[in-house]
## 1
Amino acid sequence: MRKLVRFLKGYKKQVFFGPLFKLAEAVLELIVPLVMVRIIDIGIANQDKLYVLRMGGLLLLIAAVSLSCALVCQYFASIASQGVGTDIRNSLFQKINRFSHRELDKFGTPSLITRLTGDVNQLQLAVAMLIRLVIRAPFLAVGSVVMAMLIDFKLSIVFMIVMPLIAFVLYLIMSRSIPFFRTIQRNLDRISLIVRENLEGARVIRAFSKQQHEAARFSDASDELTQTAVGVGRLSALLNPLTYAIMNFAIIVIIWCGGLQVNTGVLTQGEIIAFINYMTQVLLALVVVANLVVTFTKASASATRVNEIFETEVSVADTAAAPILISSVPNVPLLEFKQVSFSYHDNDEYALQDVSLQIYAGETIGIIGGTGSGKSTLVQLIPRFYDVSKGELLLHGVPLQNYPLSQLRAMIGMAPQKAAVVSGTIAANLRWGDQSADDNALWDALRTAQAAEFVQSKPGGLQAEIRQGGQNLSGGQKQRLTIARALVGKPDILILDDSSSALDYATDAALRQAIRRDIVGATVFLVSQRVSSIRHADKIVVLDDGCVAGVGKHDDLLRTCEVYREICLSQLSAQEVECHE
């Protein structure tokens, strides 16, 4: 948790003055039994009603001042805890936004969401408890013992015996329950994962009638969390009976021994009542300390998880300081892959191996291959979603790492394999490609993407609302919107990563024709499983198990690349294949 102390620097005033006001409240709380001593020994003993009323007024004044101090402390604690939580949450979100796909794959979405919400909330609670109770509880425990010693040192020996006993009980229970809290956090991650999968895949689950299976899976995860929580609860349930048993035994001893001293005139009745009050304060203070230990243990586990994100090195670092001045050099490829290899796990399992390609400006590049051949991986290296493991990837003859990410990605428009839109208007989604684009530019992109017709049919047109995750759109509509979004920015490099897989053949053909007609001068990457989608490309790259099996035009590859020929035979008739040979 020490590593997160930096977030408290903006709240020094609250962290300093909050505990001071709580300390003042604790001091007043220690004075209350002394006032009660005077009420009993003087006011009640002498039947002096005026004195009792005067001391009662003093108690009300102490209560009012204590309440004011508590409210001020609570105010400071609220400002600091909520402020620290907001700052940590914002910093976490910014760090996650800088993560490359590698780090996102490592943590997983459910875990990141739990850390950003539940773990930060736990840290907020720890900050509030730090300001409100960390000084007050120990001060009350120690102060009660000191005040008891001032009244009668011999009788205060009971406190010296009881405090270690209560502390031992607290330690015994806490030491056995604390390890369960880390398990609870992991169980929460698992439940979050199952819930997310069920909400996102609700249609698939219903299509296969797997509701009962998923309910059982959730029930198992929930039961595991319940069993862990119940285990902690059972241990914690021993806390009050054991501590109160010790305290009540101590009170009996105080009353017994104190009664004897009252008879001999050594102590007064009021002082015995004060002893009992101080004993109660000791117990309550130690129980609060125990709860603080639990709170800070949970916060420590949460802090470890939060720090894990902060301490994770971003594999795709934006280290370039100034934009690269791009100049066209004759015969220099726009993009060049030089013996590029890539592994997702930094080991010898390569998704791409020894890929060497030269791609020139204005070319249309078709990328085809079997499932898992590395098609999407290849194009995801271009905007630096991942960095190459071996080899070099050049843009305009300059290594990609030399470009600021903002400059590099401004040159690239991408429609990913999984169409993703956000809640809001259609226009707001499209303007991700270019915030300054006017409505005419948006309609141009929609027409090219074959999406203008369905957008016009929606009430409001460009201002029509898209629900969360595009739930009110079909798969094909979402794909066409993501293509239009990529086109709005008029990129130098357009990457369509199997982004027309949900389109029918006629719409797919019309889309490809519109791209050839409207996209002038841009380099287009068409990733597809369909031969018909890439057969007219200027250059076709055939991938097989992460390696380049062939590069060339359709007709040439039919003659020279067996992998491409097999793909064509699986989709086209033998006559269609033969007529192109």
## 2
Amino acid sequence: MKKIDKTEYEKRLNKITQIFEELVVHADEQSTYRCPYKNRFDHCTAKFGCRNQRKIDEGTGLLCVGDDKLDYRSAWEIDETDDTIQTYQKAKGTITCEGKEYQLSPGKTVFDYADDLAVQVPTSCFRTGQCHECIVEIKQGMDSLRPPNEAETFLRDNYRLACQAVVLDVDEHIEFTPLRRTPKILTHIVTELDTPQSPNPLVTHREGIVYYDNEPIDRFRGHLYGLALDIGTTTVVANLVDLETGETVSVSSFQNPQRFGGSDIMHRISYDGEFEGELRKSLIAALNSQIMEMCEKHDFVRQEIYEIVVAGNTTMRDIFFKQDVQSIGQKPYKSVIEHEYREGIRSTTSLTEKSRRLGIRSNPKAMVYSLPLIASHVGADVAADLIAVDLQSQDEVVMLVDVGTNTEVVVGNAKRMVAASCPAGPAFEGGGIEYGMPAYPGAIESVKWVDGKIDYETIGAEKPQGLCGSGLISLLAELRRHNQMSAKGVFADRKQRIMPLLSEHGITFSRDDASNLAQAKAANYCGQYIVLRHFGCSPQDITKLYLAGGFANYVNLQDAIDIGFLAPVPQDRVFKIGNAAVGGAKAVLLSREKRADIEKFVQNIEHIELETTADFFEIFVEGCQFNPMPADMTKT
């Protein structure tokens, strides 16, 4: 046996010991920077959400995309001498949302603060930045946040994902608001238009089997429900309807979360062209959330929803149905569906699709039907309005005005009907107005000028935060009546650019605000004026003026007429019909006959493009002034 060389043995032993020491040092260093839940395949083994988790294209599990440069120990170790703790103690900044306030501390996300403030922000991806549901608007303090990362590339301006927006500067003030909120949305139509009828829906059941248009689709689970949807640019309303009794079981409403893509139709179209599918994704997520809330509240399962009927303007409807909307934003402003109809490829502009393909939580075999379009931007929501008021059976000349971001005007009777769309924009819903806001609690909704000051009422009788649409119309009318502002929006003090309204609350009204409102008002003015003139009648000839839409329901009629926002139809002939679009969608959900009738009727409606009118520019300039519209068109 060969004798062991002790010197060589010691040398090799020392080398092995050194190797192990280096391994230990390396392991210790790795444990500092490499997440302990990250395995050797860079897969995440954690059972909780993390912003570094990403879905794996194939197979199961989650991929960890952490760069191993972050010291994870700080997540669970607390050192009272740490600079982070000292910074927190010295932090002067606060974060606010919906009137609630919280002290800032570094390293937390806006989503974390939403939890602290008890503000509901939606998510379905455990805050990893994948679902894109937690979009918030940063109203103040954008520079105090970490710059947007790769997960937020689809967002513009002051919109962020709450789960990715990390607070860095704790000495400034940050204010945010979730996009999915519940403003004062009108969710019903007037009682006489919503009387129960004898239902004759496509969905029926007999002998324990549910049928859709006589085709068996499911076993009877105890309920036959349908969903009537009105998808507006600003708001969404959903009525859960019992298809056997015709009664509305539940009403749900929320602000359209697509606002991050722009506040008007044209901006949404442009955004969808650049980030295809993001707008639709946000809307479907919000709708599914509302459906699940309905299920929990009324103790039923989503599989008991067997049909969905959709009303909405052309753009909102087609985005919902996964259609390319780019042609709607270009002359002649028609959707792909309308082009195909005009070319004889389609027999109708209505759409029918399986709910499963659209990703809606309902019965897997449920169908989604959209009412037909009329033309261009005059969409399925107007078709629903016509059904709600039975306009197609009227013998006398009537008028329908559906006020919103995109206002639609219809004049006529059963023999002849003319329609047009007015791109009014979001000004009367708070967009572009310094202290404008949607109809949330705290919004000023009516104004009176008393002894040089304004007297006001707010929604919910809460502290005033700004003015919603009805409050802005009321303010304009009062300023004109008391000679505080000229018809062209110039204040009595011609040098004054900003007028204090409520100094104690910091609320003002500016010349720029008046200018933005004037242009939005002019769009409504042009639509009504040109359609009335084209039909060959004046406001005084209208036997009934139906005002549709939640916004119009709260407007003071005299105020609106005095500034030229509405045609001067005698007020005893004006009927506020509320959310007629969802009422029409419900009627179609309950009646196969009404569905067939509206499909035929819309084909004969005459549509006019306002901007092609020879004197459109002159009418628009006149409409920009805060004066009443002529009562007799024959003298103009």
## 3
Amino acid sequence: MRTMPGFSLETLSWLLPAPVDFRKQIKALADGAAPMNGAALTGLATHALDLNKLTQLDRLLERTTEIEPGPLAPVRLAVLADATAEYIASAIRASALRHGILAELYLPDYGQAAHEVLTPDSGLARFGADMVLLAFDYRSLGLDSVHMAPAAAEAAVEGAASRIEMMLSGIRQAGTATVILQTLPIPPDPWCGHFDRQAPGAVSAQIAALNTRITALAETHAATLLDIAGLAELVGRARWFDHAYWHRAKLPFALDLVPLYADHVARILGALRGKARKCLVLDLDNTCWGGVIGDDGVEGIRLGQGSAEGEAFLAIQRYALDLKARGIVLAVCSKNEEDTARLPFRTHPDIALKEDDIAVFIANWDDKATNIRRIAQTLNIGTDALAFLDDNPAERARVRQMLPEVAVPELPDDPAWYPAALAQAGYFETTGLSADDAKRAEQYRANAARVVAMETIGDYGAYLSSLEMVCDIRPFDEIGRTRIAQLINKTNQFNLTTRRYTEAQVGEMQNDPDLFALQIRLTDKFGDNGMISVVIFHKSPDKWTCDTWLMSCRVLGRRVEEATLATVATAARAAGATQLAGSYTPSPKNRMVAEHFAKLGFNCTFEDPDGTTHWQLNLAAYKAPELPMTLTGPLLEVAT
């Protein structure tokens, strides 16, 4: 898969080539007025940049004292490697821009990673990392020697695993919430040839055993796995390793693969900060089938068994369905008459995608950028949550021009490589799967149906009553833990404080007697919305203080926040508290909830210089409202 007709994994060919005047654009940004615009930096980063250009972009970041981040999420990342990593760190920082992250990096001196983790007043401790990347090399872990005795090989693996676990524990004790743990690529050179698969003392067998342990450690320590072993196999292990560079400068892999490595690190950072895409928007003609349905008719389009081209288009549809199975929403944006565009979904015997798989179906003659905005509005998500697949270079260019925040992969001429281009771009990166993920695409499809119902009924109060909503409110538990952590780390708009917590921290909150932590689900006659809100309050005898209050935007206006407050107020009163308190901390994306507490009856007590506002509610004066829903759950059994 290293080299394909029209598609190259190593050169990130799903991205546009770097502009010919790249250096000139770098200089223009450097000479421009402060603060530097984050969108302009991102515009440069969303090209296929080699190591030299990534380094130039990183130097610009280093020289810039003021950056207006816009939609970029700041992340303080420490890279703890046991090989030379300065050039890798530069590439990560520049690549992070294309995944929505403004990264600040810390790199200990060579060979000092373990010392810094275990020293309380080290530079690492003072840096205050949000995330730590642990990037080990098999040679530094003592797995570069073969063993005739299986027991000796087992001991070597155990020693390497113990060292990794020691680092994980030290990082956790130092207070860093998020750890990214990297698997180890296996070198290509055999010891016993094909018998290496059966020899536990072979270097490849030892590393494979350690990778199994690393996967288990990631689960145990709630770390995020970065599967570089899998990436090296995808590229080719002989291509990944460059022994000359290791001996000369302790470089862990080939220099020209740094952009690919850095992009994979950056997409993990983006996924951890909720930047992964949620919806795949599909063109139809010559994207989901060969030919033009309006000209060729159902019988004339190429799709399905019987031809290589038809099978290639079927593979595109099947990959879209694979994404839908894990919660990615599917939409259609086609320049066509709608009835004509729907014909293959209804009548073609080989089509894999069905109309019910599509959450929003738009086929008309309007500009595609305009229709993509409509899709985002119907789904109640941002346009930056969309990826758009279209075979037409002119349409791709237009969407990039009008909606630069939408991910639009470059595609090779041969549609057989469309699934690879989409898959390797990393737009839908995830750091975990929950039961709710499997339901999410259907939830968004049902939400689109609710939009239609609201337009039909007209009166909003009558519309809410017609939904037959049931709101389930319950404490944190094991079943919901993964989804709770996902919401905390992905929700940006309806999020009062945008504090982030790992799954391990969520597990600790579950049993903390000083916290009142709620997970909230909503169902209605159109379907199950799944978990849509998370609320955390700190309890004290007289006052409960809101730490986190977030909600999925797809249920805005459904009065769930009022139901939530009623639940919190009831529990706080029962515990003897007389006040609720909370704060709103502004971020680039959460302005929509600036008046959240005011709308619920809280009074503003003061405002910080950074715009953070503080609020209080007198529980003696609070009266729960009548709500157009039924409230259920172990905390209450109240019908309203």
## 4
Amino acid sequence: MLQLRPWKVALVVFAFVFGVVFTLPNLLPRAVTDGLPSWVPTARLNLGLDLQGGSYLMLEVDTVALKQEKLNNLTEDVRRVLGQKQIAFSGLAINHDAVVARITNAADVAGAYAELNKLSAPTATGGRDLMVLQGADQTVSLSMPAQSDAAAANQAVEQSIEIIRKRIDQLGTREPSITRSGLTRIVVEAPGESDPEKLKAVIGKTAKLTFQMVDDGTTIEEALAGRVPPGSVLLPSDEAYDPRGVVVKKRVDVSGDMLTDARPSFDQNGRPAISLRFNGLGARRFGEITTANVGKRFAIVLDGRILSAPNILGPITGGSGEITGSFTQESATETSNLLRSGALPAPLKVEEQRTVGAELGADSIRAGESSLAIGALAIFTFIILAYGLFGVFAAAALVVNGFLIVGLMSLTQATLTLPGIAGLILTLAVAVDANVLTYERMREEARAGRTPLLAADAGFRRAFVTIFDANVTTLIAALIMFSFGSGTVKGFAWTLGIGVFTSVFTAVVVTQVLIGWWFKTFKPKTLPIL
């Protein structure tokens, strides 16, 4: 095992060069690394919120509003289905998390039940996403099972995380941490972003875009007096159209999820606007609606507010359109960015927000550097005093280990946090523990009468099983923390996980090569650790 094989020497040299090359950009000023050729690695460690400063937000997905929206949509689906089948009904309303309608003619109840049952779809677990029941007094009710609600909430949280990530990426914030916390909460950490209000303004907007027909049969005075037809709703609007609002049909004809692109532009009068492009379904739907409603008004609604309600002058079949309104150039750019990233499936509520100043981050960095230096010095002192020359070899292996960890984290663009520094210190201690096991085994073998070379060889062979077992259990713990933890816990687990692999490599292979070289060069008669 102590044979100085060429591949081992080459592997150790490669590991050392790799670690130095990918660690060096973190030690050089950015002005120097920016001036290096493109083929030179310049990736740096990303500093976490606790080291760099920035903004912290804890958001909660409003699952109550999500369910209410689904019930509202279900109400309109019931109205549409029964209307298409010419089944008379009354009393359509939401009652205790269910949509209930009374069928006027008793002979139509069975037919209504059969048609409404078609709204239900199978789920992955073998059930149905809707429960359709016939009740007393010719009523039919539709409700969502608990497992369907839970699945919808889970999907909303996962979808919100991806949309938040897209929106923050458009701000240019580097390496934001966006993680799930519990069932309905999302934690956002944006290093370098010192204004949480700016983050809230970007990621808190639902950005739900819909196109709905204006209800020209109802005047604004009737709507303000409370006489709004069941299939319509009064929405607020920009002052340019009517500050009192506009009555629109509840039915959504074209929605924002049919968009493929949204870009800021200027209208024919040179005012800021937003150009839209739809996918195939959206283009076809948009063409059908504008063809069938020439001369009528089409409302463009963003987050429940009318942006504009222009007249349809003719069919629009090209798959593109334009939103005009009281935009500034900045608001047009911001809104188009939100539309490109997609609408949030449900509103987000800010549960907690914090700002970590750059001064606090600098203090954390200094504290981390000091703790790392003190820890490394203590480890080096102990191992050298305890094992002499072999302790020096172990210390050299630890240096290589440190270069490898930082180099791998830089290569993978990992984020270093204060707990990550703690993980780095723990990794060094674990690596020393592997050397202690090996050297103590060597002592036992030498005292049992083996020659120095055989004792050293046996020390490595017999200690390796224990080293392997100990590091596997540490790796399992790191994987569990990384899988179920969030934020700083993940940073600690990631550093610890990388350190497991590098520690085994340096404590076994690097130390073997150094000790093998020493045996080959000096041919000692005794071990320096006796």
